[in-house]
Amino acid sequence: MNxxxxxxxxxxxxxxxxxxVEMQNTCPLCSSQLTIRVxxxxxxxxxxxxxxxxxxxxxxxxxxxxxx
Length: 68
Prior knowledge:
Structural class: alpha+beta
């Protein structure tokens, strides 16, 4: 793969990553920055993630993540 093509692929990957992070951290209703709170439940090796919007008072998501 030549340098120019590799550079274009890298730039496209970075843009996709930035777009994903922006979507995950932005309120779907008002586009404000979400507040993300993480709580640890060590007894069952779980992390709970809660994302909420301070502007429109919406709970955007709640996800439980298992720790390995």
